[in-house]
Amino acid sequence: IGFNTRKPPDRTCSERIKQFFYNPEKGAIFTRTPKSWALITIFYIIYYSCLAAFWAACLLIFFQTIDDKVPRWETTNGLIGNSPALGVRPEQAWERIDSSMIIYNQATEKSTDDMPGWKEWVDRSTEFLEPYKNQGDAVECPSS
Fold this sequence. Notes:
About 35% of the residues lie in helices and about 5% in strands. The protein is mostly helical. The protein is elongated, with a radius of gyration of 36 Å. About 0% of the residues are buried.
C-alpha cells in the first residue's frame, strides 16, 4: 500500500545485546548517538537548574515572610480567632459518641436515657487520669 519496509538483519541474542550497548553502524551508545546524548544532557541540566532556582526562590520568599521570634498569626489575627479547637478527654460515652455536645445533668449523678448524670463524666475523668497519678519521677515546675 505504498510502504516499503525492510526486514532487520537476523542476529543472535549476544549480537543484539552488543548492538544495544554499541552500534558501530550508527555510532550509537545505548541506542543514542553522542549528539543525542549531549542534547538530552544539556536539556536536563537546564531543566533541573531552573527547577532548583525556582525552589530556592520560593524558599527565600518563605523565609523572608516569617519571624523567628513570634508566630505570624495570633488570636484574632489567626484563622481560629479567640476560640481554638478543643480535644475532649475523656471521650463521650459510647452511646453518645456521635455527638460532640458535652451535656450532663448537674442536679443528679444518675443517668437517664436522654441525659447523662455528672457521675458518668467523673468516672471517665478519673479513669483517664489514673495513669498520671503517683508518678515518682515528676518534677515540681516553678512558676515564672
